[in-house]
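Homework help board

Subject: predicted structure for assignment chain

Our instructor gave us this sequence and asked us to write out the predicted structure in token form, then describe one feature. I got the tokens but I'm not sure how to describe them. Can anyone check?
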Amino acid sequence: MQLRPVRAQDLTPMRDFVRSLSAASRQARFHGGIKPDSERLLRYLSQADGVHHIAFVAVLACDDGDVIVGEARCVRAASGESSAEFAIAVADAWQGRAVAPRLLHALRRAAAAAGIRTLFGDVLAGNARMAAFMRRHGFAPAGAAAGGVQRWSGYAPCDRLAAPGSPLREPGNASLPAA
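My token output:
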């Protein structure tokens, strides 16, 4: 598995990734019903300028092209702002295998390099796993929850992340160490 910035030619792999997410994972990522085949959504997810919209994918290199197993992105709140909203999703089979921390680490480094100082993200009420992830990575609730959503905020540059070279466990391979 490798991490890299998203690119325009990722439209088809991104479509496959979004389609592969379970209903619960889609709800957690997009907070509502989406059309996984929406060209507008897929263009948005597969294009980023690296300054106002920064996005990374975790990919597996296969003979017939890359397979996306995770994505993380942040988008500036407004032009010139030093804060950005971020989101992250990992394919169900790859959850719990250190993909999300590695994506967040790459995103935070790129965001800080682009002048983004604060990342914020909305987590659905009841998503205890994501709330724990946010807490582990230095984010804190920002105000009271509203409408079934809790906003979390944290600094973009952060040294409290898992080392980017930490081992990954492949789905179904219990012989590799847990991350």
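Reply (TA_rk): Your tokens look well-formed. For the description, you could write something like this. Helices lie at 11-20, 23-30, 39-45, 99-113, 128-136. That's the kind of observation they're looking for.
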